[in-house]
Structure formats: structure tokens, C-alpha cells
Design a protein that fits this description.
Shape: globular
Number of helices: 15
Distance between the termini: 53 Å
Strand content: under 5%
Largest sheet: none
Structural class: mainly alpha
Number of strands: 0
Helix content: over 70%
Order of helices and strands: HHHHHHHHHHHHHHH
């Protein structure tokens, strides 16, 4: 077994390029795992700068000097952040506070409806099953309440950290945009020379993740706005809060849409019960989800993220289990990185095998060469 593993390792990871790529990946993940919390403002600034760099590049292609393009894009970024911070978030927070205050009434109505199930459907639901369900639900609610209380206390302690983020992140974004070339040049001078495989991986990841981030932002805006308008027309309570939740749910493919359905259905049921309006709203919501998955996503992303749904769900479960919320949030970019690394290693191995076959053994080549004819 050891011999088989040694041969496999030498065949796939013996070249300097693969060693450099493996070293860079290990160092990168080690930094994120150990000091990721400390460097969080820098990581967030990198994400925003990466997203804004595409807009700067478009302006550069139109002949705008880089410094002016950076200033215009950064001003737009700050303006949008202020609108979200002082315009959208207070409204969403207000609706969230009202919903939290009304939760006991919602749970009471849900409880009454569930208690009626054994009478309406005695062949399918028993009183014992309902009692066991409520016992389990009470335990979960107690855990959630304790977690919310703990989170509230810890959030009060992190107000100073939030203020640091508000100041540091925009400042870092500006410098990342303005001094992009100098920063990249300084970082690459410390990298090994045999890094062409790492550069190939980065080239593929850069293209796919760039398309993914831009596509996701557009999808969030379209799905969230459409859902908000639909909920508003139907007269659903907390339309803005639910619209924001539906829009953000697209960050977690498949799972996010299923999770956000629960609050939408509960609030609609509390407001209307099992009436005509409730069923129309759920049908409209289902149509939005179907159009998002079958029309909007293929139209926006096309082949930008060439990952199988099984790979996407597996990456969400894996990275979510490792890093919690942030693992779920960055599951698709991490899956893109893993896929790019595997593709690059496969292409590099095929190239090495081809080079070995072309060079070959000179003695063996001379033995296999055809003998000269007598006429020559």
C-alpha cells in the first residue's frame, strides 16, 4: 500500500510547479484558519475591491485615467453603502423588530392550527404525534432563545468592532484600488519562480469568480426587488423584510430558497390563514423561484460556474460544517477554486506525460527506429 501511494504521489506531485501550488494553497488556508478573524477587515476589503475592479477596468478601456476611474467608482461605492446603511437597513430593522414582537401571536395561531389536525385528519395525524412535536419544538425554541440572548450580549460588545470595520474597510478598498499594481508586484516578488501552475489556477479562478460575484449581485437585486414588489402588491406584512431575505437567499443555492420559504409561509398564514390570498401568494412565490432557477440563473451565469449541482450542495455541506455561516457564504468560490486546482493538476500531468513520451529514452528510440534500407 505504501509503495502504491508513493508512486501515485511522485506521479502527481513531484514537479516543482505542483509543489509550489500545494505550498501556496496550504499557506493560504493556514493563514485564514489561524488569523482569519484578525484579518477580516482586509479580507472584506479585498472582496469589495475585487468586485469594484471590474468597473474600474471598464472605465479604463474607455480612456479614463485610472486615478479618476478609481475616485468615481469609490465615490459610488461609498454612496451606495450610505444608502444601504442609513436607508435600507433601518427599515428592515424596524420590520424585523415588529415581527419579533408579533412572534408569540404567530406561534399561538400555528399551535391552534396544528392541534386541529388530529380532528380533521385522524387517519394521518394522532394526538401523540402532535404532543411529541410540540415537546420537541419547545426544546428548540428554548435553545434559540438562549442563543439570541447570548448573541445580543455579545453584539453589544462588538459595537466598537463594527465601528472599526466601517472606517477601515472603505479605506482599505480605496488603497487596494488605487495601488493595485504596486501591491501585486510587492506580493509576487516573494513567490517562487516555478509558479506557472499557480498562475494558471488563478487565471481560471479569477475569470469564474469574477463572473460569479457580478452575477450573484445582479441576481440578488432582481430576485429581491421582484419578491418585494409581489409581496407589496399582495399586501403581505413585512414585505420589505421578506423581499430582502428572499434576495439574500440566492447566496446559498437550493438550500437558501427552501429555508426562506418557511418565514414567507408562516407570515402569510398568520395574516390570512388557509385562504384564497394565501394560496395565490405561495403560487406567486413559487413562480419567482422557478423563474430564478430555470431562466435567470442560466441567463446570468451561462457557463461562468461550470459545477454540477451535486458538487455545489456537497461544497455547501462541507465548508458550512467547517466554517459555519462564512463557509456557506463562500462555498461556491471555494468549490470553484478546488475545481480549478484539480483541472490544472490534470492538465499539468498530461503535459508532463506528453513531454516524457516525446523525449523518451534515446537508446529505446534508436532500437525502435527503422533500419536503413540497402538502397540507401
Amino acid at each position: 500500500m505504501a509503495t502504491i501511494f508513493t508512486r501515485w504521489f511522485k506521479r502527481n506531485f513531484s514537479s516543482p510547479a505542483t509543489i509550489v501550488l500545494s505550498m501556496l494553497l496550504i499557506v493560504g488556508f493556514f493563514i485564514i484558519l489561524t488569523v482569519g478573524d484578525i484579518l477580516a477587515p482586509i479580507l472584506w476589503a479585498l472582496v469589495f475591491a475585487y468586485l469594484l475592479e471590474s468597473v474600474v477596468s471598464v472605465m479604463r478601456k474607455k480612456g479614463v485615467p485610472r486615478i479618476w476611474a478609481v475616485l468615481v467608482v469609490f465615490a459610488g461605492f461609498i454612496g451606495l453603502a450610505l444608502v444601504i446603511l442609513f436607508g435600507l437597513i433601518p427599515l428592515v430593522w424596524e420590520q424585523g423588530a415588529k415581527l419579533f414582537a408579533e412572534l408569540p401571536n404567530i406561534m399561538t395561531k400555528v399551535r391552534e392550527s396544528i392541534l386541529e389536525l388530529p380532528e380533521k385528519y385522524p387517519n394521518f395525524v394522532s394526538t401523540e404525534q402532535v404532543s411529541a412535536f410540540f415537546a420537541s419544538l419547545n426544546n428548540e425554541l428554548a435553545k434559540w432563545g438562549e442563543a439570541i440572548l447570548t448573541g445580543t450580549v455579545s453584539s453589544l460588545m462588538s459595537v466598537a468592532t463594527l465601528m472599526v470595520y466601517i472606517i477601515l474597510v472603505p479605506l482599505l478598498v480605496f488603497f487596494f484600488l488605487k495601488d493595485r499594481r504596486q501591491i501585486i508586484s510587492w506580493c509576487t516578488q516573494w513567490l517562487p519562480q516555478e509558479r506557472h501552475l499557480a498562475e494558471a489556477v488563478w487565471s481560471e479562478v479569477n475569470q469564474q469568480i469574477g463572473n460569479y460575484i457580478r452575477g450573484k449581485v445582479l441576481e440578488i437585486v432582481i430576485v429581491g426587488t421582484t419578491s418585494y414588489i409581489a409581496f407589496l402588491i399582495m399586501g403581505l406584512n413585512y414585505a420589505l423584510l421578506l423581499g430582502v431575505c428572499v434576495g439574500l437567499s440566492v447566496l446559498i443555492p437550493y438550500i437558501g430558497a427552501a429555508l426562506v420559504t418557511i418565514p414567507v409561509a408562516l407570515i402569510a398564514f398568520f395574516q390570512w390563514g388557509f385562504t384564497h390570498d394565501f394560496y395565490i401568494l405561495m403560487i406567486v412565490y413559487l413562480i419567482i423561484q422557478i423563474l430564478d432557477g430555470n431562466l435567470l440563473v442560466p441567463l446570468i451565469f451561462s457557463e461562468a460556474v461550470n459545477l454540477h449541482p451535486v458538487a455545489i450542495i456537497g461544497s455547501i455541506l462541507l465548508f458550512g460544517g467547517l466554517w459555519g455561516f462564512w463557509g456557506v457564504f463562500f462555498a461556491i468560490p471555494l468549490a470553484i477554486l478546488v475545481n480549478a486546482v484539480l483541472s490544472a493538476l490534470k492538465g499539468h500531468k498530461l503535459q508532463l506525460d506528453s513531454d516524457q513520451q516525446n523525449t523518451g529514452n534515446p537508446v529505446q528510440k534508436s532500437l525502435e527506429a527503422p533500419a536503413p534500407s540497402e538502397e540507401q
